[in-house]
Amino acid sequence: MADHSFDYDLFVIGAGSGGVRAARTAAARGARVAVAEAGRLGGTCVNVGCVPKKLMVYAAGFADAFDDARGFGWGSARPAFSWADLIAAKDVEITRLNGVYQRLLGGSGVIIIEGRAHLADAHTVVVGDARFTTETVLIATGGRPFVPDVPGARLGIVSDAVFSLPELPPRVAVIGGGYIAVEFAGIMSGLGAEVSLIYRGPLFLRGFDNDIRATLAGEMVKRGIDLRFNMEVDRLERTSEGIRVCGPAGDEIEADLVLWATGRVPNTGDIGLEKLGVELGENGTVVVDEFSQTSVPGIYAIGDCTDRMALTPVAIGEAMALVETINGRPTAMDYSNVPTAVFSRPQVGTVGFTEDEARAAGHEVVIFRATFRPMLNTLSGRDEHTMMKLVVDETDDRVLGVHMVGPDAGEIIQGFAVALKCGATKARFDATVGIHPTAAEEFVTMREPVDD
Ligand code: NDP
């Protein structure tokens, strides 16, 4: 990168997690960088994703804390909850983060260009009336919620809108069975709504370990969430009382608010990619090679618009690898053992192979599993169990997968992800001293495998 006949060395389209990291890192290495953003800095994660969602998960968690406190000698009344106060406080925090992103970019010497960008050619970016030339283009435009095309679909909202709802209605129906459906079902039920979760398959969180899926389903039912599995949705109807969600088999659920959580699609429609011959896949996904290079030289893409793993830390990893690549050291992101958490209630944390994936990959596996009532729940009386599971290769003793449903699962699994990256064996887990009394110690004290 250093052809000064261009205005910029790198022009990033989209200031989300991936775009911002690529812009800042490239600028820190001396590149002349611009980033164009039509919305607020920080993209999905900061504005309508990970961050405000986690703040809402904390809010919902207080409901448990107030209830559990009674068993520990605290008074009995749960204080009143104000949705409007939560949204206002969340908005202040998100605005603060927008400012942090602005300062981070500015401080790195990145030029921020407000507006929607499109490509006139592989080296020319147009934003409004302005044209900029650049040696390299990075598409980091993220994704947006997908809503199935069924009659009445517009009666439902998508996750973006939850963060600015004026109030939390009493009855909520969530359609979908992925991260977003499960997380919002937990948030809204914790904050006081009566929640139904409608999923077209037999058990939600497809792709996660089956013990996680079954354990979480059981715990959500105990929390009063109405799980409607094997229910397709073929239309929404307005009624005098609210919105009716209707399935082809005649099943119906009435709610005041319907949330579509049926996946996301890439934001790649109006950038001019097709015209330039950039290969697009299903739903407009930008097709890239292992170095995030598109089919057109000089145009790269990272993050959700490439639909590899739609996770903020993965987009950031792709950004870091990309900066190495455009600096002449081709670097590929390592997608093995990427840990992830679902901020459901209780939480899910997972890294490595599920039991089914390990077997499908040809491993002979030994399974260790523990289900127990965490100590907090002894005095609180809460009927909720934690589940932990290890998938171990029988031949070389390597731990292939670590899975958990329970409080702080995301925090706990992060550390075990390091162990898996280091290729830890079950013997190493056994040789590790536990921290007592914690739930996490169970991962290093499981001695007896479960029967097949
Ligand atoms: P997911 O892809 O996780 O889940 C989509 C869900 O919608 C699936 O259960 C799918 O069913 C269902 N679905 C898809 N199409 C239809 C349809 N036409 N009718 C009925 N149901 C349908 O998407 P999300 O939107 O929940 O999340 C998007 C991605 O964002 C996640 O995959 C994840 O990568 C990321 N994310 C990460 C979070 C985290 O790290 N905690 C939090 C939120 C999102 P089926 O399984 O049958 O295909």
Global outline: globular
Report the β-strand fraction as a percent range: 15-25%
Average of per-residue pLDDT values: 97
- Number of DSSP strand runs: 22
Tell me the CATH architecture of the largest domain.
3-Layer(bba) Sandwich
The hetero molecules present are: NADPH dihydro-nicotinamide-adenine-dinucleotide phosphate
Number of domains: 3
First-residue to last-residue Cα separation:
56 Å
Q: Could you name the CATH class of the largest domain?
A: Alpha Beta
Largest sheet: 7 strands, mixed
As a percent range, the share of helical residues equals: 25-40%
Assembly type of the shown chains? single chain
Going by helix content, strand content and strand pairing, the class is: alpha/beta
Instruction: Flag low-confidence runs.
Output: none
Radius of gyration: 24 Å
CATH superfamily of the largest domain: FAD/NAD(P)-binding domain
How many helices?
12
Can you describe what's shown?
By secondary structure, this protein is of the alpha/beta class. Helices cover 30% and strands 23% of the residues. It has helices at residues 17-28, 43-48, 50-69, 83-107, 159-162, 179-190, 210-222, 312-326, 355-360, 376-380, 409-421, 426-431; strands at 8-13, 33-37, 111-114, 117-121, 124-127, 130-139, 143-145, 157-158, 171-175, 194-198, 226-228, 235-238, 243-246, 252-255, 257-260, 264-266, 299-301, 340-342, 348-352, 365-372, 386-393, 399-405. The protein has 12 helices and 22 strands. Strands 1, 2, 3, 4, 5, 6 and 17 form a 7-stranded mixed β-sheet that branches. The protein has 3 domains: 8-144 and 265-326, FAD/NAD(P)-binding domain (3-Layer(bba) Sandwich), CATH 3.50.50; 153-262, FAD/NAD(P)-binding domain (3-Layer(bba) Sandwich); 340-444, FAD/NAD-linked reductase, C-terminal dimerisation domain (Enolase-like, domain 1). Residues 148, 176-181, 183, 199-201, 206, 261-264, 310-311, 340-343 line the site of NADPH dihydro-nicotinamide-adenine-dinucleotide phosphate (NDP).
